[in-house]
Amino acid sequence: MDENSLLNLARKYETPLYVYDTEKIISQYTKFVSAFSKVKKLKINYAVKALSNINILKVFNNLKSGLDTVSIQEVKLGLLAGFNPKDIIYTPNCVSLKEIEDVAKLGVQINIDNLSILELFGQKHPKTPVCIRINPHIMAGGNSKISVGHIDSKFGISIHQIPHIKRVIQNTGMHINGIHMHTGSDILDIDTFLRAAEILFNVTKEFKNIDFIDFGSGFKVPYKEGDISTNIEELGKKLSLRFNQFCKEYGKDITLMFEPGKYLVSDAGHFLTKVNVVKQTTSTVFAGIDSGFNHLIRPMLYDSYHHIKNISNPTGRERFYSVVGYICETDTFAINRRINEISEDDILAFSNAGAYCFSMASNYNSRYKPAEVMIYKGKDFLIRKRETINDILNNQEEHII
């Protein structure tokens, strides 16, 4: 995945193009599992929403990973990728009772995050084990849009509503077999996880026969040289020690679960684009590329940083550019960024393009979604063809008006 390799892929498959390095994915997964090697029962469920191409899911299936899903479509993708239903957990938000019931029929683990649906589901399906998503009221995450465990969040059942949960259980006879939380993304401070852990342990004590505790994810990955990230080894050491102690207090070995997405696939992805125009204005030099927020929305949506490198001229003199897209709306990837001198037709490579990049792509401006390529055991495989006008029209119905 060096500059020459990426450049050759851009020439072979054209741009815009997403490229994923499976060796990096496997390395991250192995690193994560090793950090919690002291825990007797550990389960890693890859968050499908980060990158849902079925070929990537098959890589995780080969690693004996489970899946964290948030929609019935993600569940079905996981099943098609070969996952056993018991290795899939389904954690929706604001979906219909019918969707939850349809997923339950597929045999996966159900995780419910509001009292109303919990009661309705328990009344109709008291024998189906259910996990409960708790809102720990912890403000965490690198951005307010990806902080999901605070008191005003739409996610989870408040820790102050535990008596209500217990009353639903008593009235329905349903079985609660897991406790879950997810506080946010891009969390750097491991004390946040440790504080939330104590909250989850206290909640777990309120219920008998809990089989697993799911700590969600949110681990920060580095986005540029010198950037800091979550110290997964230190977290593994501290949380494993406390978790093992809690299992003794609880009287049984509970499974420790996580649902990482970005941590596993972010750094494995590169987004390759071609420069259409270099435009000088009175105050700015723009590098306009053959893409936009229809392909990579994170910088516009979350103010996220993606390192951008000119792989056509990696040793050229550095100049300052604002990198923008071709969408008929402001779509700025970088402002006044130092990049090796750019000319028309150069190829720019965006780093950390594995998570929440293609999976959030759209057909805005009726533009085609890009192709995807996976590097597996040293070979490149086209895992998603570039769209055509037929894909745009596929589900449209023409009528004579």
Automatic annotation (TrEMBL):
Ranges of residues in domain Orn/DAP/Arg decarboxylase 2 N-terminal: 24-266
GO biological process: one example: lysine biosynthetic process via diaminopimelate
Uppermost EC category: lyase
EC number: 4.1.1.20
Binding site for pyridoxal 5'-phosphate: 218, 356
Entry-linked HAMAP family: LysA (MF_02120)
Family: Belongs to the Orn/Lys/Arg decarboxylase class-II family. LysA subfamily.
Protein name: Diaminopimelate decarboxylase
Name of the encoding gene: lysA
